[in-house]
Give the backbone structure.
Amino acid sequence: MTLTDLDITPRPRAVEDPLMVLNGVRQEFPAAGGRTVHALDGVTLEVQRGETLGIVGESGCGKSTLARAALLLRKPTAGEIRFDGKDALAMRGGRLRAHRRRAQMVFQDPNDSLDPRYKVLRSVMEPLLSAGVPRGEARAKALEALEAVGAPDGAAGRFPHEFSGGQRQRIAIARAIATEPELVVLDEPTSALDVSIQAQILNLLLELQESKQLTYMFISHNLAVIRHLSHRVAVMYLGRIVEVGPASQVLADPLHPYTAALLSAVPDPDAGRRERIILQGDPPSPTQRAAGCAFASRCWLATEQCRTEAPPLVHTDVAANPTGGHLVACHRPGEGQEALRLGLRPASSTTV
Amino acid sequence: MTATIATTDALAVEDLTISYGGGTPVVSGVDLRVGPGEILGVIGESGCGKSSIGFAVLGLLPASARVDADRLDVGEHGMLGADESDWNQVRGRVASMVFQEPMSALNPCMRVGAQIAEVLLVHGLADKKAAHARALDLLRLVQVPEPELRAKQFPHQMSGGMRQRIVIAMAMAANPQLLVADEPTTALDVTVQAQILDLIDRMRRETGAGVLLISHDLGVIAQTCDRVVVMYAGEIVEEGVPTEVLANPSHPYTAALVASIPTTSTAAREDLPMIPGGVRDADRETSGCRFAARCAFAVEACASPQALVEVEPAHTARCWRSVELDLTALSEVKA
């Protein structure tokens, strides 16, 4: 079967029509002692065409599981995923293989997508070949992608170990864009790089997004990098989206106390020493599914209601938030940030 | 814990040069001073020599490393030419270390309480019973909840943040004068990083230990340190108070480094200023400025040797043009 046998031509794009919709996606894994890890605990999210959707959260919050679900690498336990209006979870066989061409991934460690025994060209061609592109065309597209990312001359004929970490990440990006995907999921793509190299890769990602009209799902624990790249941001905690909205709103005026704490914990070279919210303890185990708000055990604002009743992800004050699209799952939205702004110390804050 | 506020410096290093296997020095001509209770930050990118410095001041470099210096004092101990048995007297007692990955410093087969007590037993600072009691005190000091229970656990039963607290408890067990922390929070989440930085800050205030904090993260340095040295290709290129050095850099490398990082004041989705190229071996061998090949402001005279010169009180930079250059333009790109 070749590509032309399958209908993968993108439909004309309606502006309001999101590229991907996740609806109530749950991902459970069996854990020791008969327990269950709730890695994704009912995630509902839209990815708009041409945007960068930043996904923020700490270790174990489910952000990498979310990436794998979005790429259809593992079938979710429950929920719905629609890609370009179609039921993505219903795809099988050749149709699924052809779909893979439209959604690609860049990992934190470029070595995860580059086989050390293969010359660069072969690694970059691989996703094209597996999507059924004829060899000659795949070769041309791979070389084109390597040029687009600014890989050094002659890179195609060399091995990954001959390149620096930054160059290897460029090559991994070439591999991801070679199939001319619509969606690229970037999982911590600059976390292993020095800051001056990070700037080069971030600039490249911005440039590629413009020139190739890519949609990015950008996963990072680094809020500064998220802020720099994202149009919208979703904040995850313990398998749930606790806040989502335009980057300028979520990162400047967070409504969820966890977002406020996360933002205040990031040391900012511009700010020096300042008031911070220091959360006590670690996130609870994802095997213990909270009855109420997942963050309640570490939240300084938590009430009895927070511990027993899970807050839905909803629009808050529409009057104060006329542009809409800023959603939060909190019974006391905005109070965490308000306290910080007024200089009121939450019980767990200190100045360092 | 009884706070003994030392009067001697925690660390005094002069003209430190380190090379491996007879190659080009990875660190050259470095002077460092860490006062009691002070946190000195060392910042730089991969290969700038910052970790080699951390290992050198604890005598932990491999046998193939050659260390030359005019002075290497750890507390009141002169360690120039010290042999392994001299270092064994100092390590863990006068100076100790916290690594990036806590698991690399912990014995996976030993209960954490016993591991902390072991530090005191090895140095003959306590008998078995006293060492065990002190281990519980130390767990309380580093704010480990339920210390009696935790002392009986193994490292794998703990989170990354909790393990790093255990490592810090071990490092502080003998009440050292110097704590070397090499990327202590790089492997941790930001909310846990905030807890650990807070803990290190409290430790030095309560015990008077000086801290050498090695990091690649400008934010961590700005938040935590009293002074900072910026390293490039094995040399110190700038030194001063973090807020001053990062807000008002006087060396083109520092300015370019600061400008290349997105922060709260960076314009979103605009190109970040980049530093072209990378560090080459030849840059470490030149007698002139090592950054010249990548510097936007380099002129012919930059090929001659550069000294660290004072640009303001307590702020030095290794750039003869630092006074005439206006580097604020680089940082203004961000605003």
About this structure: DSSP finds twelve helices and 13 strands in chain B. The mean pLDDT of chain B is 92. The first helix of chain B runs from residue 50 to 56. Residues 2 and 225 of chain B are 24 Å apart (CA to CA).
